[in-house]
Request: fold
Amino acid sequence: MRVWLPYQSLAEAEARLGGWPAGIEVDVWGQGRVPSSADEVVYLAVPNYAAVPVWDQIEAAVPRLRWVQLGSAGFEHMLDRVPAEVGLCNAAGVHDAGTAELAVGLALAALRGIDKYAVDRLSQSFAPIYSDSLADKRVLIVGYGHIGSAIERRLAGFEVASVTRVARHARIDPPVHAADDLPALVGRADVIFLAVPGSAETEALIGAELMALMPDNALIVNVGRGVLVDTNALVGQAGRIRAALDVTEPEPLPPDHPLWTADYVTWTPHIGGFTRAFEPRYDALLHAQLARLANDEPLLNVVRSPA
Reply:
């Protein structure tokens, strides 16, 4: 069974994966390198942050392909690109640590004014801020999956007043509210973490109506997808609502967009999972997937089965 993996060489692939099962034939590919075995490959893993360009190199020349493995938790950007007869697996779990760390880091930076001190440093003059703190804040986590639960674990040491969880459907253990409950919940939240995939269903999930229900100085922390937050509604709040964003809509923002200079926004350029924690975790996922392929077992993280 022929598989393509996103490494620089077979030696690197073997070292990082610890080898692979009998019956699996490995080629390495990506960033301009396309193996000659395109008519044989069955399982193809793409590198993180480069799924679209590397897929565009080969998408018309892989007649036996059955599975595409993404390096990202998000998969909506590939649904229309990968043919329906090809299954799609994401990397759920691989980015949990990095993204959850960034979510809490963004909240701290925004609440404590760390980003403003970084700017002040350039002028060699500091103006101390009597700031907010995560301590005693009422936290709402919207998207209580892998990343949402990882955010909650990292909040444990910050003495927040409460944590309320929201997912698509309600659950009991631990208690999780359904997304339909958001209008009743946002008014009691000081910090709102968003860790929801982008889709037609979640577009503008946090819009003008929900923002109007939030308390003054509520902080929205978005490490999901930019479309979750209505950008125009956020601008329209004129700082009554603050935001700490790793993602925006549109992305990237045009040069003249008001969020560039908004003092109520803290942000990073979509780097939630862009850490050295990614490689060993993706390696472990690929190792497990190859074992399952070799043993004809169901793959992990299937978000769309082959038609």
